[in-house]
Amino acid sequence: MLQTLYDYFWWERLWLPVNLTWADLEDRDGRVYAKASDLYITLPLALLFLIVRYFFELYVATPLAALLNVKEKTRLRAPPNPTLEHFYLTSGKQPKQAEVEILSRQSGLSGRQVERWFRRRRNQDRPSLLKKFREASWRFTFYLIAFIAGMAVIVDKPWFYDMKKVWEGYPIQSTIPSQYWYYMIELSFYWSLLFSIASDVKRKDFKEQIIHHVATIILISFSWFANYIRAGTLIMALHDSSDYLLESAKMFNYAGWKNTCNNIFIVFAIVFIITRLVILPFWILHCTVVYPLELYPAFFGYYFFNSMMGVLQLLHIFWAYLILRMAHKFITGKLVEDERSDREETESSEGEEAVAGGGAKSRPLANGHPVLSNNHRKND
């Protein structure tokens, strides 16, 4: 049964053009071809990325945050209250007015105290400014290095300047070490993002981020063992070209450098629109959809690859909408929050009453981030 499924999954007609077999892609005469087994190394490399990230955030990003004066804001913790905690964990983080009244009777607190408890409890679960800065620093470092490395891999290749050469000799196209490592490192990094997504900063486009990571992993993996490597290197470099700008804008935002953040974000928006909404659909997708049909009939792998590219393109359109809306607000000076950010709530400016049995009065609070507390992420 398993062998039958294995044989069907690797059936040549699924992944290769007609009249070609996996035997045509076996290493010979000093020429090395991509193999699915090459991708096994990406899982341990992903774990290595997580380890490197931990030490990077601890010994590089944290001192950098201190240097840029990234400060944590003091957050008042919600006092222990089993009744409210149980509701928070099982029923919801934002009780309706009727639920507030019920919780008020059950806990012995006033309705206002119950609402204040839930505000504080929600703020406790929100990621700290330092956590956001460290995450942005790590991604900025990787994307910048990846973009430079990717350009070094493809800039001297003829298919970088003439898209038709992407398919010259396909699929009998051998690989070189630089392409191998570019692929393995990129795929490992996206595996690491998927592994850490539960602990990373969660935003309103969390589901879209998961879809993006899964689609990217599938695309990179498929393009490797189906030998779409030339197209794959172009696509990866194009995506990396704007991501490091976004992460650097976030870093300056968390450091309170508002003007620098805004200027970098405008540059990012321009690069993103040009690369994702112009170059990708009208050059890259045209290359992967039109040119192959001049060489061989369409097959499952052709449809599969371009379908996944279509998923990414839809995500880019969604993120471009958010980016353009934010860019417009930047220019007009109206932006105070990221379109996707989970805003930290402030306490009432009036004197607080004792909460959950605590006898002391609380003083007015201001727990929210200053004006620009956005966390710009479109996400590739």
UniProtKB/TrEMBL annotation:
Alphabetic keyword roster: DNA-binding, Endoplasmic reticulum, Homeobox, Lipid biosynthesis, Lipid metabolism, Membrane, Nucleus, Transferase, Transmembrane, Transmembrane helix
Segments forming domain TLC: 131-332
Residue ranges occupied by any Homeobox domain in the UniProt entry: 67-128
Presence of the UniProt keyword Lipid biosynthesis in the record: yes
Places the protein is found: Endoplasmic reticulum membrane; Nucleus
Any one GO MF annotation of this record: sphingosine N-acyltransferase activity
One GO BP annotation of this record: ceramide biosynthetic process
SUPFAM superfamilies in the record: Homeodomain-like (SSF46689)
Transmembrane parts of this sequence: 45-68, 140-160, 210-229, 264-284, 304-324
The EC number(s) this enzyme carries: 2.3.1.24
Annotated stretches, region: Disordered: 338-380
Chief localisation class: endoplasmic reticulum
Record's protein name: sphingosine N-acyltransferase
Organism classification: Eukaryota, Metazoa, Chordata, Craniata, Vertebrata
Gene label: CERS2
